[in-house]
Amino acid sequence: MTDPQTPENKPLRPHYPPDRPIAAPRGNGARPVRLRESVPAAAPAQESAWASGGAPRPVRHTGLWLALALVSFVALCLMGYLITSLYQAYPVFRQKAAIMEKDTFAQGISVDGVSIGGMTRQQAQAALQSSARQTDGGLWLTVRAEEQTWVITPKELPLERNIAAVLDTAYAIGRQGTRDTIASDVTPFEYRYAHLYHTFSSPVSLYTTVTYDPVQLRALVRQMEAQANREAVDAQVATFDFSSRSFTFTQEQAGRRLDGEALYAQLTDALNQRNYTAVITAQTSPVTPRMTKAELMSSFTRVSSFTTQTTANANRNNNILLAAQAVNGRVVMPGETFSFNEATGERTLEKGYLPAAAIAGGTTVDEVGGGVCQVSSTLFNAAAMADLTIVARSPHSWPSTYVDKGRDATVNWPGLDFQFRNDGTYPIFIVAYYQNRQCTVELYGASLGPGVTIELATRVTAVVDPPDQPLYERNPALAPGTIQQKKQARTGYLVETYKVYWQNGQETRRALLCTSNYPMVQQVMEYN
Fold first, then answer.
1. 461 CB-near residues (< 8 Å, 6+ apart)
2. Reduced to 3 states, what is the DSSP secondary structure of residue 490?
3. What per-residue confidence (pLDDT) applies to 261?
4. CA atoms of 148 and 9, how far apart (whole Å)
5. Does residue 285 contact residue 259 with C-beta atoms inside 8 Å?
6. Residue 497: beta bridge partners?
7. Which of 17, 138, 166, 392 is most buried, most CB within 10 Å of its CB?
8. Over the stretch 105-114, which tens digit does the pLDDT of each residue have?
9. Strand 471-474 vs strand 438-446: parallel, antiparallel, or unpaired?
10. Which region, left, alpha or beta, applies to residue 293 given φ > 0 means left and ψ of -120 to 50 means alpha?
11. pLDDT higher for 256 or 37?
12. What's the rounded mean pLDDT across residues 174-179?
């Protein structure tokens, strides 16, 4: 077997140039055979060369080679220039890129006058907080209101600044925007760089906003109002000498009112303008007293006086004297209510009161303290004539002899009382006394007005006569055959009492004060 043809044992074939005759193997007498291939007609010299059996001759193209050489030279020069240019621009590019990659604020930016260009956010935050502490720590607002002064510091009104929000705005400068101020024919890289550094030629100044709690500021203003406001003080009665009926008076004092709304506006204006050391003068207005000392001296007088005639009964007059002394010197302040029973207390023997005639159960009996109703009735008339408010008053079972019908006021311990209230502005001073079988009550205070006085007038609206025949009642306690009167016959009356107002001798009006009912009493006879 023959070995397979491999690159190692494959038979080699001789290589011949074209058109070269291949010699036949010797010994067989065959003629040489020429193999022809197509040869371009334009190459006779080459064919001649091959035919002669010599080496081929190269074709000379000198111009082409020169052109190729020149192009190559220019290309090499241009490449070298480009490489050199790129090599020289690369450091600048890297420098700009490094700058743009920094996490800092653009140059030319300031906040509250502090330059933060080239700072990191942390550095800028620290710098602005330090500046704010120096500025806000200097808060020393002075408020003056006449003789009073207040100072507002960060302790009373803490201040805060929106530093973080302003830094957000500052950081966006150079990183956001449009081509409005930068040429549009630059590369995106150069645009970004130019935008970032546009603040070099056009610096940017930003400012933080100072904030504070308006509710807290309002509270401070209210405190100042409370301390500055002063109510006017009217002239008052200082003393009253009941024996001489003379007064002394205090001096009036003007008040003051601070305008809180105006002060709040002044404070907010100073804070918004960062005028932290402003001196503010608060607006105040005077408050005039309602009554001056001169006016009070001219108006304080005896407002009313009423006198009743007593009897010759010694015990009764003794009781009237003690009751008048208990009432005398009393002061009824504005809004207070005077009580007769409270002023005298229980009328007892221990207090010096004696038995005297009094009405009880529709009949006249001796009772300890009998007669004190004349003092309460006298006081009732004086109080009504002083235009005081009658709170509690009751008529007797029948009309009294010492006052007209409808002008009495009975009392009895402890339930039946006479009371009046002082609804005026100034106190009422009571002067009550018994002298020469007369009971007198005088009331002193502010006058009712120029030339104004009050009188009481009564009108009987109904009369009820008792039956002509008495009523008989058997009393086994009487001796047999005895007849005596138990109750006296008395006519009944219904009476209206009016307050009549006079001014300079002319009646101006009248008002119903009270209605008194005195029931009819039938005569009662006892027998056995």
1. 494, 495, 496
2. strand
3. 95
4. 128
5. yes
6. 458, 514
7. 166
8. 888 888 988 8
9. unpaired
10. alpha
11. 256
12. 57
Give the three-state DSSP class for 380.
helix
Residue 174 makes CB contacts below 8 A (sequence gap 6+) with 106, 195, 196, 197, 198, 199
Residue 346 or 181, more confident = 346
Instruction: Determine contact, residues 309/402, Cβ cutoff 8 Å.
Output: yes
Q: What is the DSSP string of 244-280?
A: TTEEEEPPPB-EEEE-HHHHHHHHHHHHHTT-TT-EE
Using only C-alpha atoms, what is the Rg of the chain? 65
Distance CA 342, CA 362 (A): 26
Amino acid at 114: V
User: In this structure, which amino acid lies at residue 182?
Assistant: I
Amino acid (1-letter code) at residue 83: I
Q: By three-state DSSP, how is residue 33 classified?
A: strand
**Residue 484 identity:** Q
* 154 φ/ψ angles, rounded to the nearest 5 degrees: -60, -20
Q: Residue 377: what residue type?
A: S
Query: What amino acid occupies position 238?
Result: A
Q: What is the CB neighbour count within 10 angstroms for residue 438?
A: 13
Q: Which positions ≥6 away from 213 have C-beta within 8 Å? A: 157, 158
CA distance linking residue 242 with residue 227, whole number of Å: 40
Whether the link from the prior residue into 466 is cis, omega within 30° of 0, is no
Mean pLDDT on 178-192:
56
Q: Which of 223, 220, 228 is nearest to 286 (CA)?
A: 228
